[in-house]
Amino acid sequence: MKRLYIVRHAKSDWTFDVDDFDRPLNERGKRDAPAMAARLKQRNVQLDALVSSTAVRAWRTAQLFAVVYEREDKAIIGIPKLYHASAESIYDVIEGISDDFQSIAIFTHNNGITDFANSLGIIRIDNMPTCSVLGFAANTNQWNEIRKAEKMLLFFDYPKMKA
């Protein structure tokens, strides 16, 4: 059984004097990311790997999760292909993950992340909010079988969700 947690990057700053790729997190994003990581830990979510888009806002979100999980930045696997990735590209990245990892978090962007979530067939989401996390289990021992594996929703959570 593999477990995957897809995370939309935290709220970013709309600074127009930098490229989209280089946009940083805003203050809310800097608060939400560690708070959501702590909520994952409260659910006893174990993360064997953190895989992130290399865009600043996604990478920084992954870094803030890594701090809560007591991991070093070098433990984050940067995948440039995750920057504004389509659902298909997200599948491609997952299928290339080492089977040594049982539980991974992937940090990426909308619209692809919402499309990917809806492609799973276990939930319907109109829009994954910033710093939202969708967790699911896949009945497989190999990441390259993720598309056809039976999937089970574990949870969907986001910063403004009421407990």
Q: Which CATH architecture?
A: 3-Layer(aba) Sandwich
Report the C-alpha radius of gyration, rounded. 14 Å
Query: Helix/strand/pairing class, anyone?
Result: alpha/beta
Q: Can you tell me the CATH superfamily?
A: Phosphoglycerate mutase-like
Count of DSSP H/I helices: 4
Q: How many separate structural domains? A: 1
Identify the CATH class: Alpha Beta
Biggest sheet: strands, sense, closure?
6 strands, mixed
The CATH topology annotation reads as: Rossmann fold
In whole angstroms, the N-to-C terminal distance is 27 Å
Residues in β-strands, percent:
15-25%
Q: How would the global form be characterised?
A: globular
Q: What value does the average pLDDT take?
A: 96
Descriptive overview:
The structure is a single chain. This protein is an alpha/beta fold. The chain has a single domain (2-157), classed as Rossmann fold. 28% of the residues lie in helices and 20% in strands. It is built from four helices and six strands; from the N terminus they run E-H-E-H-E-H-E-H-E-E. A six-stranded mixed sheet has the order 3-2-4-1-5-6, with helices on both faces. Helix 1 crosses helix 2 (56-68). The longest helix has 16 residues, at 27-42. The mean pLDDT is 96.
Descriptors for this entry?
single chain, globular, six-stranded mixed sheet, alpha/beta, 6 strands, Rossmann fold, 163 residues
